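Marked as duplicate of an earlier ticket. Keeping the data here for the record.
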Amino acid sequence: MKTIDEIRAFFRQDRFATDQGITIESAREGHAVCRVTAGPHHCNAMGSVQGGLLFTLADFAFAVAANCRQCDTVTLNSSISYFRPPRGEVLTATAACVHRSKSTCVYQIDITDELETQVARVSTTGYILPQAMGEEQP
């Protein structure tokens, strides 16, 4: 199992997420917690946190949880439900695997703020690449 420092070092290569200020708080196979502090540059024209930041935070948490052992999972489908704007500034995405088979996995990612406002929920289906199972790709 990789250490948290090894996981963080690998995912620093995800420049889109890390350039937004997203950090990895904890990670183990099938579970990750990622965080970002939303600032004015993360807001839309109405002054609310841009939905794209919330989706990026959730997508990154999924990637960390699904790939912290080895890089073998890519997104097939993601669906986000926005519940309410955050009341706080610190946004946390908690990703948890709810199903895994030989070729697919399903994760639920909940986004909250430091005031415990449930901001959004994402459901992501991932595809586990054949080489991760010792098979050759077509």
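See parent ticket for discussion. The chain is about 20% helix and 40% strand.
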